């Protein structure tokens, strides 16, 4: 073989080796990029568990979460009352007083959203008893289940009602708001105590304090009060509340905070809110929730 041919063969071999190296490097880079994209996508749309799946707020959260690509597990005492159907939605029977039923819905990967609340008959004048413990006991069980399964982020609904000053004596008939605060004073006390349970949990958390919620299209007109009291007597849409809750599934801005929510729209029963309609709906849900299950 001539010296020229030998040099040519060596050059070709070097090119082949270089091409192989470049191909391997490109494949490795592509694999890392794709893996990063998968991880980023998973971080953006992690699976979620919604506890209290029959609540109106939960319905809004679940619908928006499915539209955004999340896998959703809903927990309800009466799963049949959840009417949403989607291949990425599972509804499980559970109760916040039953920690094992909560654990069964968790794998450690999900963000947990608690929209737990009692079914209240607004036409009933009976007062919430001082032994009421749904929020504190239920949330303590949620936290214990999360810690056992390895879930780290809890998003939990409270209410602007925890900021109110409550009457110390029973008010005279005629003032709906004062009558409600008197009747529900132990409910809100337990809700406020629940916030302390969440803060002491060691989990990532956001506590939401929404105002009166109404079924209207999203308006994006709400304002926030972080770790402080908010103006009272306003209203916001379930759609806006659900969207804000979902933003906190992956967002970090409000971690470790209580977030009060309000708008510039005053709540006026009989004008922009139908109290009779709301009372009828609440009464129907109250009766259904307290009916004997098959």
Q: Strands of the biggest beta sheet: in what spatial order?
A: 3-2-1-4-5-6-10-8
> Could you give me the name of the CATH homologous superfamily of the largest domain?
NAD(P)-binding Rossmann-like Domain
Q: How many alpha or pi helices?
A: 8
Q: What is the average per-residue confidence, as pLDDT, rounded to a whole number?
A: 85
| End-to-end distance | 92 Å
The CATH architecture designation of the largest domain is 3-Layer(aba) Sandwich
CATH fold group of the largest domain: Rossmann fold
Q: What is the CATH domain class of the largest domain? A: Alpha Beta
Question: What report would you give on this structure?
Answer:
The chain is an alpha/beta fold and 294 residues long. It folds into two domains: 1-44; 46-289, NAD(P)-binding Rossmann-like Domain (Rossmann fold, 3-Layer(aba) Sandwich), CATH 3.40.50. The chain is 43% helix and 15% strand. Helix 4 links the parallel strand 4 and strand 5 (153-157). The longest helix is centred in the N-terminal third of the chain and has 42 residues, at 3-44. The protein is globular.
